[in-house]
Amino acid sequence: MQDTMRAARNWRRTLAIMGPGLIVMLADTDAGSIITAAQSGAQTGYQLLLLQGLLIPILFVAQELTLRLGLVTGRGHGELIRARFGLGWASLSVGTLVLSCVGALLTELSGIAGVAQLFGVPAWIAMLLTVSFMILMIVTGSYRSVERIVILFGLFEFAFLLVAWKAAPSGAGMLREMQQLPLHDNNFLFLAAANIGAVIMPWMIFYQQSAVIDKGLTPRDLRIARFDTAVGAVITQVIMAAVLIATAATLHRDGVRSPLDNVPQIAGALTAFLGVEVGRVVFALGMMGAALVATVVVCLTAAWGLGEITGYKRSLEHHPLEAPWFYGVFSLTLVVGGVLVASGINLVNLSVAVEVMNALLLPIVLGFLYLLARTALPEPYRLQGMYAWLVGALMLVTAGLGVYAGMRGIFGG
User: Fold this and answer.
1) Residue 325 near residue 313, CB atoms below 8 Å
2) C-alpha torsion angle, residues 137, 143, 146, 147 (rounded to 10)
3) In a 3-state reduction of DSSP, which class is residue 361?
4) Is the domain covering 22-215+236-249+258-411 a CATH 1.20.1740.10 domain?
5) DSSP letters for 18-71
6) For residues 16-39, b (16+ Cβ closer than 10 Å) or e, as one string?
7) What are the pLDDT digits (tens) for 122-159?
8) pTM of the entire structure?
9) Where are the chain's structural domains?
């Protein structure tokens, strides 16, 4: 009886601690990432499928260092950079964050607008409803209530697993194409850079470090927080792989490139085996879930990050009148993004370009993360020894590959 009660308490504690890692990973599979994976499958078949698996440990390593910094120091990422390296370097880091957040937000809201248009709803109405709902949720909720709602949104992303299964991909075809890597092809390299940038984004690092603090987690929660992050890392890449597989099975037969130009084309490619009506609903649920999770995460990250270098109050536990700048930045970011999207924007081209931009920002993002893990943590938690050398090499290769592939894809040569 006592063992049963102890096990129940442990499970309750585990579930209470979990959340930040899962949310940031569900947000990682955002509208831009889904579109990037779909474009990759449509244009290169299964050639970039192996990359999705290789990115799982890289993603976990980066986010594990992030939560370690947050749990042990009790400071956000920008705040910690300012304390260790000064305001100038902190401003540079937060500048890359804001740039990444703006690009990501436009892709999330454009994804929501694209889904709305599938059902004949004008973009401006979709933006008005989305922005109003998000602001109301944040203003009236605590961290834990917002976390539960966001995880619920994210569950809809599993719809893409159904899509991949119904596409009935060829196992032999996948194995054959994964071994064919056209490293001389600039379009392949551009999409490879976009996939790397779609997995490790500046706002993810800032978000998780701030979220574990706002949730009130401590160093004793590190083991469960790591598990939370590991589960999320696998889930996000499985979903990315599912989208790539579905579009490759549908559009890249016989090696013919079929680039996607808009959301209806992506919806058709991902749901060709489900029928028009069912397919449209399944795609809408998956895309909306991904975009809504990422919208909340991106806007919260911008509000947290700016607060870390300016010093204003920045917690969902504060009443809006206690932290007007925090809630104001969140709301203003949403409103400006909604207005820009309602004016019309090419979602597919924007999404891939934003992910490539994220890849080009990796040296700054991963560089600061590595330096903080080496210098800002006390001895028991510090990144050191052979693992530090391994992590450093992994980050160097990831950032170098992202920049190289991005530059080659953009400028050729």
Assistant:
1) yes
2) 170
3) coil
4) yes
5) -SHHHHHHHHHS-HHHHHHHHHHHHHHTTTTHHHHHHHHHHHHHHHHHHHHHHH
6) ebbbbbbbbbbbbbbbbbbbbbbb
7) 888 999 999 999 999 888 878 888 888 888 888 888 88
8) 0.85
9) 22-215+236-249+258-411
